[in-house]
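Entry 12.
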Amino acid sequence: MITDEMRGILGKAMATATSFPIAESDIRKWAVAVYYPEVPPPLFWDEDYARTTPFGGIVAPEEFNPMGWMTKEPRPTRKEAPRGAYEAQLGVTPPVFKANMQSQVRVTYSGVRMRPGDVIRSTRRITDYFEREGRMGLQLYTTIALELVNQRDEWIKTLETVYVRF
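Predicted 3D structure (tokens):
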């Protein structure tokens, strides 16, 4: 299923997006939602407390998604390619498949935290392919990585999602 054309697009940017500046209220609302019904840790909402920590101020929880509401670039309209035809975004004909499922999510954090005022850039890429025989026949596993960096080009985290197509 993996063609030379597909190997040729590994690591190439499929899409980029830029967040609007992160507001303290964005962080507070995210923390309230994530920790509900408990009160979130004061690091995420209490400026006086947060100043006493090694972070020196309010920071976002590591799982915070600054792209969740809107980005500076309009979201692209869905192309005619079926869901799971990732290669089409890079001008490559995707393999023929009947089904597409998410099989695994991995996150790697750098330790750099998102803060109020930060502008975050995300870049999505296909980073890996491998095949495996399964009950439904030959399966193609595709890893899509989403990397987030801040306005200082400091790497924040990478979210890798592995999809299986068969």
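Annotation: The first strand starts at residue 13 and ends at 18. The chain has a mean pLDDT of 93.
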